[in-house]
Amino acid sequence: AESLRVNAVGHLEIGEVDTVHLAREYGTPLYVLDEEVFRANCRRYLCSLGPGNRAAYAGKALLTLAICRICQEEGLYLDVVSAGELYTAVKAGFPPERLYFHGNNKSLQEIEMGLELGVGRFVVDNFYELELLEERARALGKKPAILLRLTPGIEAHTHEYIRTGQLDSKFGFPLATGVAEEAVRRALSSPHLELVGLHCHIGSQILRLEPFQEAARVMVAFAASIRRKTGWVMEELDLGGGLGIRYTAEDDPPAIEDYVQAILRAVEEACQEEGLPLPRIVVEPGRSIVGPAGITLYTVGAIKEIPGVRTYVAVDGGMADNPRPALYQARYEAVLANRMLEPPAVEVAVAGKCCESGDILIPAIKLPRPQPGDILAVFATGAYNYSMSMNYNRLPRPAMVLVRGGEVDLIVARETLEDLISHDRVPERLWK
Ligand code: LLP
């Protein structure tokens, strides 16, 4: 990202803050979030979407109270998927009517919480939820606005996409089988639900535009067929998130502006063809807003050289704070933040500290010959790192700081050892 720089002493800077100073002051592992990059990405979405359309930041990528505040300031909506995310948003003062409430298995408590708070949209995933929501809405005297989540039968891969006749997914009403039509009919028949529109989400870290355009076309065609059959007019079309980002030099994602233009145009053309009025367009970007805004700082510890085989450079975090390499073979790039002026000298594997052979953050990377105490900065860790972090091996979760124009704010405190045992309970007899 453009906010990363190398300063006069050869240290990596982010948001005009020296990362080596950050590591010293706040400890490592440390998540560092560049506020300007985050805000710039929000604005890029809003500007290219234009008035009337909406961007709902997908909180699953990274949600904290401070993040909610920024999203609200920037004029975004928010996509939440659980009571926990809902609670975070509301505690941050985020207006409930600007919330999209997702989830493929919302509990009764979550549904009631959403109804009582008055969330703007329930994105209904299945018949069970439809019935539960209708029943609770009736009981509580509410009439929630809903979108139906459909699976449009499009499989988006990183480099290709194929159309599947029958979509095998745990999410949504399958469009192909007549199930989606049945869902629309049931929603329309309920006096306690207001069907506002349709939703789909075809995947994440998608690096091509065609699958998004295809999804838009399929959704509009479905809405047109429903209109012919029932007269219902789709007011809102939510196309989900999924735009990919650059993790390594091999990734070449479309720009936010090009992505938005592509889907707007696809919807416009399809609506024209089908004679449908233009719906309001909603997108739910997570990764493409926050991913590039984050880096993680680690301290190098043990270095194990296996002659002729490999050198393992262990850092003080790993799969507990970034499970993505272990889960998805996700690739990352990194540098020694305290030695930016030195050329790469050796190829090493960056290992985490968890008791798992699979805890390798980066299988092969060229760095200046690492020394214990060096600060390793891993790039593009803003999305799905902190939000997917865990306490495996009883590692405390790292702190997170927000940087901007040389200023630093702590937005997530580091977990303490005391935090780790705070939910443990010991039966009296075991203390004897
Ligand atoms: N909307 C819905 C309904 C979603 O399911 C998702 C992501 C998003 C929006 C946001 O997608 P994004 O713009 O961030 O791609 N843990 C995985 C990613 C899982 C994404 C799940 N859904 C990873 O670390 O790659």
UniProtKB/TrEMBL annotation:
<feature type="modified residue" description="N6-(pyridoxal phosphate)lysine">
    <location>
        <position position="60"/>
    </location>
</feature>
<dbReference type="GO" id="GO:0009089">
    <property type="term" value="P:lysine biosynthetic process via diaminopimelate"/>
</dbReference>
<dbReference type="Pfam" id="PF02784">
    <property type="entry name" value="Orn_Arg_deC_N"/>
</dbReference>
<dbReference type="GO" id="GO:0030170">
    <property type="term" value="F:pyridoxal phosphate binding"/>
</dbReference>
<dbReference type="InterPro" id="IPR029066">
    <property type="entry name" value="PLP-binding_barrel"/>
</dbReference>
<keyword id="KW-0456">Lyase</keyword>
<protein>
    <recommendedName>
        <fullName>Diaminopimelate decarboxylase</fullName>
        <ecNumber>4.1.1.20</ecNumber>
    </recommendedName>
</protein>
<comment type="subunit">
    <text>Homodimer.</text>
</comment>
<keyword id="KW-0028">Amino-acid biosynthesis</keyword>
<feature type="binding site">
    <location>
        <position position="356"/>
    </location>
    <ligand>
        <name>substrate</name>
    </ligand>
</feature>
<dbReference type="GO" id="GO:0008836">
    <property type="term" value="F:diaminopimelate decarboxylase activity"/>
</dbReference>
<feature type="binding site">
    <location>
        <position position="328"/>
    </location>
    <ligand>
        <name>substrate</name>
    </ligand>
</feature>
<comment type="pathway">
    <text>Amino-acid biosynthesis; L-lysine biosynthesis via DAP pathway; L-lysine from DL-2,6-diaminopimelate: step 1/1.</text>
</comment>
<feature type="binding site">
    <location>
        <position position="242"/>
    </location>
    <ligand>
        <name>pyridoxal 5'-phosphate</name>
    </ligand>
</feature>
<dbReference type="InterPro" id="IPR022644">
    <property type="entry name" value="De-COase2_N"/>
</dbReference>
<keyword id="KW-0210">Decarboxylase</keyword>
<dbReference type="InterPro" id="IPR022657">
    <property type="entry name" value="De-COase2_CS"/>
</dbReference>
<keyword id="KW-0663">Pyridoxal phosphate</keyword>
<comment type="similarity">
    <text>Belongs to the Orn/Lys/Arg decarboxylase class-II family. LysA subfamily.</text>
</comment>
<feature type="binding site">
    <location>
        <position position="384"/>
    </location>
    <ligand>
        <name>pyridoxal 5'-phosphate</name>
    </ligand>
</feature>
<dbReference type="InterPro" id="IPR002986">
    <property type="entry name" value="DAP_deCOOHase_LysA"/>
</dbReference>
<feature type="binding site">
    <location>
        <position position="287"/>
    </location>
    <ligand>
        <name>substrate</name>
    </ligand>
</feature>
<feature type="domain" description="Orn/DAP/Arg decarboxylase 2 N-terminal">
    <location>
        <begin position="40"/>
        <end position="290"/>
    </location>
</feature>
<dbReference type="InterPro" id="IPR000183">
    <property type="entry name" value="Orn/DAP/Arg_de-COase"/>
</dbReference>
<feature type="binding site">
    <location>
        <position position="384"/>
    </location>
    <ligand>
        <name>substrate</name>
    </ligand>
</feature>
<dbReference type="InterPro" id="IPR009006">
    <property type="entry name" value="Ala_racemase/Decarboxylase_C"/>
</dbReference>
<comment type="function">
    <text>Specifically catalyzes the decarboxylation of meso-diaminopimelate (meso-DAP) to L-lysine.</text>
</comment>
<feature type="binding site">
    <location>
        <position position="324"/>
    </location>
    <ligand>
        <name>substrate</name>
    </ligand>
</feature>
<feature type="active site" description="Proton donor">
    <location>
        <position position="355"/>
    </location>
</feature>
<keyword id="KW-0457">Lysine biosynthesis</keyword>
<feature type="binding site">
    <location>
        <begin position="284"/>
        <end position="287"/>
    </location>
    <ligand>
        <name>pyridoxal 5'-phosphate</name>
    </ligand>
</feature>
